[in-house]
């Protein structure tokens, strides 16, 4: 089973307000370098960068221009990928737990489509005009992470259908599910959080000090 790893890195990091996240440093390395090191073992690695940004010198990695949305960035990589299976991993998640990736790959080989996900740790409540609304049973919900893995042909079909319908999904599992294909949920890891808000940088710097996965 050959594997392609697709790394969407073309976001502009607007919520973080520090420029494109891929070039932000945590623990002395950019988020892009974290992702490239984490998947250095993979046969084929593609990266979508913000258009116009310089490609870091890195042999064995193919860089493509990202699109205006995450889905379009993934599509730009997917149409050039050659592996039987593709793993899509957001560069905004610099801490990649190898055991979680192994669990995911096993599920993909068995089912064709899987994503990492974690339980909701806090009480989950609907916000009603700034006040505490209905409590939602958190046991029924999961927070979705990446990587997500798919048979390449399946993800291609899902993206083509999303384009045809004019849909723009925030992750690839949604596109596959919309085709009517089930996506397995595999136990993720809280350390694989996505850097989104400025305070996440402090958490990441702290974790980087002891990181050895
Ligand atoms: O914005 P958000 O953090 O949800 O983005 C998730 C991932 O998708 C990030 O790694 C980001 O770089 C990537 N992305 C992209 N192209 C875009 C928007 C986001 O590759 N146009």
UniProtKB/TrEMBL annotation:
Site (Transition state stabilizer): 15, 21
Keyword Transferase: yes
Family matches, as Gene3D superfamilies: Spore Coat Polysaccharide Biosynthesis Protein SpsA, Chain A (3.90.550.10)
Keyword Metal-binding found: no
Enzyme Commission no: 2.7.7.60
Top-level division of the source organism's lineage: Bacteria
Keywords of this entry: Isoprene biosynthesis, Nucleotidyltransferase, Transferase
GO biological process assignments: isopentenyl diphosphate biosynthetic process, methylerythritol 4-phosphate pathway
Gene Ontology terms for molecular function: 2-C-methyl-D-erythritol 4-phosphate cytidylyltransferase activity
Catalytic activity reported: 2-C-methyl-D-erythritol 4-phosphate + CTP + H(+) = 4-CDP-2-C-methyl-D-erythritol + diphosphate
Site (Positions MEP for the nucleophilic attack): 138, 194
Pathway stated in the Swiss-Prot or TrEMBL entry: Isoprenoid biosynthesis; isopentenyl diphosphate biosynthesis via DXP pathway; isopentenyl diphosphate from 1-deoxy-D-xylulose 5-phosphate: step 2/6
A Pfam family it matches: IspD
PANTHER family hit by this protein: 2-C-METHYL-D-ERYTHRITOL 4-PHOSPHATE CYTIDYLYLTRANSFERASE, CHLOROPLASTIC (PTHR32125:SF4)
Annotated function: Catalyzes the formation of 4-diphosphocytidyl-2-C-methyl-D-erythritol from CTP and 2-C-methyl-D-erythritol 4-phosphate (MEP).
Family affiliation: Belongs to the IspD/TarI cytidylyltransferase family. IspD subfamily.
HAMAP family (alphabetical): IspD
UniProt protein name: 2-C-methyl-D-erythritol 4-phosphate cytidylyltransferase
């Amino acid at each position: 089973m050959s594997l392609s790893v697709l790394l969407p890195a073309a976001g502009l990091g607007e919520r973080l307000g520090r420029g494109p996240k891929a070039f932000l440093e945590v623990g002395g390395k950019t988020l892009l370098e974290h992702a490239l090191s984490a998947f250095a073992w993979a046969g084929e690695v593609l990266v979508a960068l913000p258009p116009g940004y310089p490609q870091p010198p890195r042999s064995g990695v193919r860089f493509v221009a990202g699109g205006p949305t995450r889905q379009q960035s993934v599509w730009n990589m997917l149409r050039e990928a050659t592996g039987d299976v593709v793993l899509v991993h957001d560069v905004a998640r610099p801490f990649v737990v190898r055991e979680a990736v192994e669990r995911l790959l096993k599920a993909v080989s068995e089912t064709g489509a899987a994503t990492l996900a974690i339980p909701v740790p806090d009480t989950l409540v609907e916000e009603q005009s700034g006040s505490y609304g209905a409590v939602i049973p958190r046991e029924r919900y999961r927070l979705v992470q990446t990587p997500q893995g798919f048979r390449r042909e399946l993800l291609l079909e899902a993206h083509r259908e999303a384009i045809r319908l004019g849909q723009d999904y925030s992750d690839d599992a949604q596109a596959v599910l919309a085709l009517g294909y089930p996506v397995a949920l595999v136990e993720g890891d809280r350390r694989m959080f996505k850097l989104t808000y400025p305070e996440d940088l402090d958490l990441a710097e702290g974790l980087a000090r002891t990181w050895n996965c």
